[in-house]
Amino acid sequence: MVELAIIGSDMQEVIGCAIAFHLLSSGRIPLWAGVLITIIDTFVFLFLDKYGLRKLEAFFALLIGIMAITFGYEYVTVSPDQGQLLKGMFVPYCEGCGSVQLSQAVGIVGAVIMPHNIYLHSALVKSREVDRSKRKEVREANKYFFIESTIALFLSFLINVFVVAVFAEAFYGRTNQEVYSVCNETGSPYSQMFPMNNETLEVNLYIGGVVLGCFFGPAALYIWAVGILAAGQSSTMTGTYSGQFVMEGFLNLRWSRFARVLLTRSIAIAPTLLVAIFQDVQHLTGMNDFLNVLQSMQLPFALIPILTFTSLPSLMNEFANGLVFKIGGGVVILIVCVINMYFVVVFVTELNSVWLYVLAAFLCMAYLAFVGYLVWLCLIALGVSCLDPTSKRENDTTILIEQRPESDS
């Protein structure tokens, strides 16, 4: 399930980069060519990987900085209503929303908290040299890991707020006729994209950049495209590293990073390339919304094991989760599952096919059964750990043995 989330994330990176190249070249690079160009990402990633994890992290921080600056620029340029922004952030409501709006709302959850990135943050502790036999050093390391993860997630949240607020303020309620008139007056080459009618404008990553260029100048369009490109590049690296850790931890497969990137990129490029060749950017954007929802659907398969492992005294000793964290984590997982199921029910009720009803019902039952099975296994693990008084002492010995210097003996 986590590998599916990683492949879905890789497909989003391919879509985003293809749209970015199309915008930056003023349409000279077609979408299918932009998809093929993303193959170069593999070689860029492998080139940086040779210089060590620290250099790669520095480059990743640079990409996040570019995203924050570019999308922040769009946010300042559009100047959304701050009061309404705070209201929407803390008061959940969506008047007159259909399945499309709900799918985007559910997708935001998966976009901000990508399931495979939870494993990535956990696995990065292996790259830090910490003397795990000394409780003080472990406690100090936990504090800085918490700070590091909090900053990373906050920046991700902030960037998503910038994007959603820009779309809401700049595009909500606009008609095709209005956008066509503005683009035509500014001499935009994209004015013919918008039919001259009073229907509400449908916005996506591509059209969003075009409309920003019409209303706020060409600089807004190109800055938007650079931000999308930076987001795509950062997604490549996080997906590759988290996939490596997942394969090693779950399946004991130690593939080279080249093989790892090649596999996921090949799976991601094939369907995306077909859509780019035979369809248009609207279908690419629809695929992107679906992939965001897929990320949200995969969240329980990351949250449940993480909550279980960090609650096991046999693994965590004195650093195991307390009752508050266990209950809080369980409530979060339950909320995510309920949101996912609610979206599926709303989406299915708008369909008019009995076969789709049956298929959706079957998939929902299978999904809930899988989540329930995972919860049951985790509860058993927690119960065994609490009932075994020797597990903690055995784990203490194991930690000390693992920290001994390597020698021939």
Please explain how this structure is put together.
The protein is an all-alpha fold. The chain has 2 domains: 297 residues, no CATH class; 104 residues. It is 78% helix and 0% strand. Helix 4 packs antiparallel against helix 11 and helix 6 runs antiparallel to helix 16. It is globular and about 75 Å long. The two termini are 41 Å apart. One of its GO terms (molecular function) is cadmium ion transmembrane transporter activity. One of its GO terms (cellular component) is lysosomal membrane. It is a multi-pass membrane protein. Belongs to the NRAMP family.
Structural class: mainly alpha
Query: Biggest β-sheet: count, sense, barrel?
Result: none
Mean pLDDT: 77
Shape: globular
Backbone CA Rg: 23 Å
The percent range for helix content is over 70%
Please write the string of helix (H) and strand (E) elements.
HHHHHHHHHHHHHHHHHH
Q: Helix segment count?
A: 18
Beta fraction of the residues?
A: under 5%
Distance between the ends: 41 Å
Please tally the β strands and state the result. Answer: 0
* pLDDT < 50 stretches: 391-409
Q: Compute the number of structural domains.
A: 2
Pfam families: Nramp (PF01566)
Organism: Liparis tanakae (Tanaka's snailfish)
InterPro entries: NRAMP_fam
Protein name: Natural resistance-associated macrophage protein 2
